[in-house]
Design goal:
By secondary structure, the chain is an alpha+beta fold. It is built from 14 helices and 32 strands.
Length: 708
């Protein structure tokens, strides 16, 4: 039946009766005809039948953020489990559908979901409405969808005022074809075309570009010659065998350490040479594509799981445990045969030395780390956690369960404690609780009463208020009578009830972060006192909470996906943490060589990637607080996306192990200039690359300072 008009939108709702809601998949439908007036205002149209989405559709252009179709809050959001829509993005690169959930009176979405689409591929997009609890940051893959990311704060379904849907404007014009939008009581079925999108080497079939490998035979011939190209490469004469400078020496201790010479920070290698860590992350035989169940037709015939290419199959990974296939590894086996690993190791080590990298970065192949003989860093195993989480991935940090997990975690370092080639270890990578300036203690009170961390808060409040619960109750304005009520009750938005409540909870959030980092950090130091603790690799400094546990760090690490190292943020870190800074990840991608996504950030071409790289690294070397830059990654991501859907053109080499010469040449020049730049004998390179809007991974939080 036809629903009533709400906010100018007629809802074609077969709104089902409550008695049948549990069995009916569709609770409401919004048809393209309903959306036609809005589509026209966006410069789009509606069509009665579209072969691209298999039925009626609206076609809307990509638009600036905030210019969107709107669905009203009167839809049965509280009864639904999924918001689903059939969609296709028309264009030459990946598209991003943004779904924003708004509360009444708010001009910015309380919560936003980003859904990545491969160009020209019809699929069903589904948003699980469980994300409205604010605990989810990444969605598991579904057939045909690339990335699925969530940012924002908790929004109860009954408080939804409206929902906005748009195709985000990026690097070039695109059009979104959108079919019927459905609110559903269960997850929709996903169907994809049966036409393969990649060739047997893992390259995008529909696109041609300079350097595309033309078949198996050409690949084998190329890699046979590549094996010999840089064999025997050595570092410059003024560099030591580990890649440090012999022109700047300090006290040798047998392990890597940090040193401030009165002017700038240095890493110092085991023999006492000044060292700037030029790292390349993910040095491994190949990246891995997630073979999402239901999406197999997009790959075409893959190698059998028994036979010569069996090693190309990778075990389940990611939150959903999806199997993977590495075209990069399969290409090595095709070219080198059963002895592929030694040939790959020899070729890759020679390349790193010839390109003047001196550090095997994070996420790299363990055998390569050992066989290469180069300095390296490691990522610690999964961070200590507890069965009950306080907020996103933040564990119950005052529980004995967390302390026991911390001891088990630290034991991983025992195997490395005497290795002089290990620079240090990263404790964690981009913890989810740290993606915003969130009041962690306030978020903890939203769910899961009875935790040890709530008990710690009750004790802390009792001490702060000298046992006077009545005084505390008035100050907080929550009508509580006993400190124990923060243990036993669910308290919604406690930090918003009064300025005193906000300040108290923010101060206790600092205590929580000190425990979260400090307890495992001290255990690590007990097991391995020799190597550098390289910190948490925060995605950014989102709030002052991140400084609370720097006492266990030797180096403060950040991932800085910008066109240049963030000088202001680095200066603030060095001042507040009194530690040097390492950039754990950065990269640049373009759209001109075989993949539809740029990563973060994007530039115009391979030549511009080289310019951007050289500018970034030399600017970092000129900064007296920076001791290393680690580029992410060695090989492009797979065209059809890894476990989380990323499919970026960000590598030094492509899926066929062919380097991008423009990037390699510029990087080599940058690396050879680093020590002269550090010592002030040479000015850093000032070339400026032509940036384009990034494609493929757009939901990145804006850095914030201070707490709330």
């Amino acid at each position: 039946m036809r629903g009533a008009r709400t906010g100018g939108l007629a809802i074609a709702a077969s709104l089902v009766a409550a008695s049948t809601a549990a069995t009916a998949p569709d609770l409401a439908e919004v048809t393209p005809a309903d959306l036609a007036p809005q589509a026209e205002r966006l410069g789009g149209t509606s069509v009665s039948e579209s072969s691209l989405v298999g039925g009626p559709a609206v076609r809307i252009p990509s638009t600036p953020e905030g210019t969107a179709l709107r669905l009203p809050g009167s839809l049965p959001w509280s009864r639904a489990r999924f918001l689903a829509m059939d969609a296709l993005v028309e264009g030459q690169h990946s598209g991003e559908v943004l779904v924003g959930f708004f509360a009444a009176g708010e001009t910015e979405p309380r919560l936003r979901v980003s859904l990545g689409l491969f160009p020209g591929l019809r699929t069903t997009l589904a948003v699980p409405l469980s994300v409205l609890d604010g605990q989810t940051l990444s969605l598991p893959r579904t057939p045909g969808r690339l990335t699925g990311r969530v940012r924002g704060r908790r929004l109860p379904p009954e408080e939804i005022d409206h929902v906005a849907i748009q195709l985000k404007e990026t690097a070039a014009p695109q059009t979104l074809h959108l079919g019927v939008i459905r609110l559903m009581s269960r997850e929709p079925r996903y169907e994809v075309p049966r036409t393969p999108l990649v060739d047997e080497l893992g390259q995008w079939r529909a696109k041609t570009w300079e350097g595309k490998t033309q078949g198996d035979a050409f690949l084998g011939t190329y890699l046979t010659f590549a094996l010999e190209d840089d064999r025997g490469a050595t570092y410059p004469k003024t560099w030591c065998p580990r890649g440090g400078t012999t022109e700047q020496t300090f006290k040798a201790t047998g392990f890597f350490r940090t040193h401030h010479d009165g002017t700038r920070w240095w890493l110092v290698d085991p023999e006492g040479h000044g060292f700037f860590s030029l790292g390349l992350n993910a040095v491994r035989p190949g990246e891995t594509a997630a073979v999402v169940p239901g999406a197999e037709p997009l790959f075409g015939p893959l190698a059998p799981k028994r036979g010569p290419l069996a090693e190309a199959w990778r075990g389940p990974s990611g939150p959903a445990g999806v199997e993977g296939y590495s075209f990069g590894l399969a290409n090595l086996i095709r070219s080198f045969g059963p002895g592929w690993r030694q040939d790959w190791t020899d070729m890759t080590r020679s390349r790193l030395v010839a390109w003047r990298f001196n550090t095997v970065g994070d996420w790299s192949d363990p055998e390569f780390r050992t066989e290469s003989g180069l300095p390296y860093v490691i990522q610690m195993p999964a961070y200590p956690t507890t069965e009950t989480l306080l907020y996103r991935d933040l564990p119950d940090v005052y529980a004995e369960e967390f302390r026991a997990a911390a001891r088990e975690y630290a034991a991983h370092l025992a195997a490395f404690r005497d290795d002089p080639n290990l620079i240090g270890y990263f404790m964690q990578n981009e913890p989810e609780w740290a993606f915003g300036a969130d009041n962690l203690a306030s978020e903890m009170l939203e769910a899961n009463p009875g935790t040890d961390s709530r008990r710690a808060l009750a004790h802390w409040l009792s001490e702060r208020y000298k046992g006077d619960a009545a005084n505390w109750s008035v100050a907080w304005g929550l009508g509580l009578r006993s400190f124990d009520e923060v243990v036993s009750k669910t308290l919604s938005r406690a930090a918003e009830r009064s300025e005193t409540a906000r300040a108290d909870l923010w101060d206790f959030s600092k205590e929580m972060v000190r425990a979260y980092v400090g307890i495992p950090g001290l255990e690590c130091n007990k097991v391995d006192p020799h190597h550098l603790n390289l910190g948490m690799r925060y995605a950014r400094v989102s709030s002052e909470l991140l400084y609370e546990a720097v006492g266990v760090f030797d180096v403060f690490s950040i991932n800085a996906y910008e066109m240049a190292p963030p000088a202001e943020a680095i200066e603030e870190i060095a001042k507040r943490a009194r530690r040097p800074v390492m950039i754990g990840e950065f990269h640049f991608g373009a759209l001109d060589r075989g993949l539809p996504s740029t990563g973060l950030p994007g530039v115009e071409s391979q030549r511009e990637r080289g310019i951007a790289y050289r500018h970034y690294v030399e600017a970092a070397a000129a900064n007296p607080n920076v001791v290393g830059t680690h580029y992410s990654i060695l090989q492009d991501q797979e065209v059809l996306g890894r476990f989380d859907g990323e499919n970026d053109q960000i590598g030094f080499i492509d899926v066929c192990h062919r380097p991008y010469p423009e990037l390699v040449g510029a990087a080599t020049r940058a690396h050879e200039s680093v020590y002269e730049v550090m010592e002030g004998r040479k000015k850093p390179y000032v070339g400026k690359a032509r940036e384009i809007p990034r494609v493929g991974r757009l939901l990145r939080n804006t850095p914030q300072r201070g707490g709330s």
